[in-house]
Amino acid sequence: MELTAPRSQLAAAVLAVPGFVVLLALAGDAIGTSVERTIIVFLISLTAIAAMGLYSGNSGILSFGHLSFMGIGAYAAALLTLPAQIKGATLPALPEWLAVIELGLLPATLTAVILTMTVAGLVGLAIWRLDGSAATISTLALLIITHGILIGWRDVTRGAQTFFGVPRDTTIWVAAAGCVISLVVARLYRDSACGLRLRAGRENAIAAAAIGISVPRERFIAFVLSAGLMALSGALIAHFLGAFSPKKFYFTDTFFLLAMLIVGGMTTVTGAVLGAVVVTLLTELLRRLEGGLDLGFVEIPQVFGTTQIGIGMLILLALMRRPEGLAGLREWEEWLIPPRRTAVDPKPLSPAESDPLDAISLTKRFGGVVATEEVSVTVTPGEIVGLIGPNGSGKTTLLNQLSGVLRPSEGAITKGGKDLVHLPPHKFVDAGIARTFQNIRLFPTLSVYQNVQAAALATKGGRDAGARVAAALERLGLSGVTETMAGNLSYGDQRRVEIARALVCQPSLIFLDEPAAGMNREETDALMEILRKLNSDLGIGILLVDHDLGLINALCHRIIVLNEGKLIAEGSPEEVRRNPAVIEAYLGTSKKETR
Ligand code: ADP
Ligand code: MG
């Protein structure tokens, strides 16, 4: 697994986990009885919450379905450890091989984890393309379906009846071990190449695709991995309780785990731990109040559901006052330990190939609007092409088609003879095409470094990612702000981060949609100098949209003019400037109006 964060931070994070868990376990072991039970349940909850955070936190998709995986893990592991004698008495209809099998906790847990990951893989294949609320609702459906199966499959699960007789092998130390595994996997995943790519997708799916990230694929990996850890927590709880029924893995526990995730903050492992602590403490407190309380001067009556009501209010409070959760957006060690990245020599960012891009007769319709109409253009690496036209003339729509963000209604796009039209957007970058967006699309809660790093890790040549990131940051003059959150930068800086992110993909063509918007004169001039150098030093072709005709004339070898979706002129700056159609489009004296 390739790790993307500074070693000092990850080492601190990974070492702190067993420290924290062992301290808790020691305390529970020493105090014993009811406190020990509470701590075991806490450790198992933490195992589950880290697993849920791994998926929901990094993908940004809240999951209501993860308790299904806990349930599958619990039943699967319990079926394997349950003494054959008890199986004979309570589950007479079990298949022969399952009836006689009697495994220890460890092999049973491992088997349950693998089985659950397989199930999650199959589920993931069905839902991996779903986005946002559709994805969340699909996980809700999963919870309900799994619950139905657990209740319906009586021969194996005893249906709604209690499944009992499971050996109580989950001691406080077993729970601690499971918890350490889950927390460490979740923490390392977050800063692995996969985790960073998924977080980029969470922040902006379109931009992530534009730098070569297959967001569905990354989601799928996280989904299966987190299901495995959920199964681990299920096996632990099954062998702690000894007896349980399907409702243990349904809405009530989903609610409590989601509360932990939301209150603590789901984007970090620190948040998972904080949320688990706060919700567990509050639950314990409220449970004591549930039976009523006599304060001497006033008597609080018994109220059923005090715990749920209290936790519900806590969620509301958290959402209103601290929507990103108690822990915020960074891990504790990211706050405390300054990220010192080992210096690397920048690697020259030469494009891998130099095939021209040919677009033939691109037409894009939005309902009745024809945004581009039979536009044919060729862009060759090595040249700087200006794309101009009045507002709404189809410039952005053309770039979106050329970079795979939009599929043309009609027309063909090829590069070096290779057909691109039918490729998914994240494959365009493999063909040497990178871009920036008119309405900036950064990964705002990731650092400048991580914005560029995510792109470097998503494209070919991921090996020397560090050297490429350094080179891209240096070229765009961003070496001084690498650890700033991208969303906190000025517009001008944000636009330069977008260009660095595109550049690190080693494209042969870069499309820039109004890169100077929001920049002052000096910034614009500096940017133009950078672009000129990219072109002359590296031979990168640039397709540039801008409204500043002086700038376009000074920089571009060739200019393309769109008006009302049609290509109305193409040629050298000189030719275009004298073209009557262009003058007409720009001066706004269209025939319709003068007539
Ligand atoms: P430009 O970048 O030159 O200002 P655009 O490409 O953004 O122009 O827009 C071209 C035309 O297509 C406009 O009329 C715009 O309203 C329309 N358009 C662009 N995107 C969409 C969309 N997603 N849905 C509907 N209409 C769109
Ligand atoms: Mg535009």
From TrEMBL:
The keyword Hydrolase appears for this protein: yes
EC class of the enzyme, as a word: hydrolase
SUPFAM superfamilies xref list: P-loop containing nucleoside triphosphate hydrolases (SSF52540)
Gene Ontology MF, one: ATP hydrolysis activity
Residue ranges of domain ABC transporter in the record: 357-589
Pfam families xrefs: ABC_tran, BCA_ABC_TP_C, BPD_transp_2
Membrane topology: Multi-pass membrane protein
Enzyme Commission (EC) number: 3.6.3.-
GO CC annotation terms, alphabetical: plasma membrane
Localization (cell): Cell membrane
Entry keywords, A to Z: ATP-binding, Cell membrane, Hydrolase, Membrane, Nucleotide-binding, Transmembrane, Transmembrane helix, Transport
Bilayer-crossing regions: 37-55, 67-86, 106-127, 134-152, 172-189, 220-243, 255-282, 303-320
Name of the molecule in the record: Lipopolysaccharide export system ATP-binding protein LptB
Protein's organism: Roseovarius aestuarii
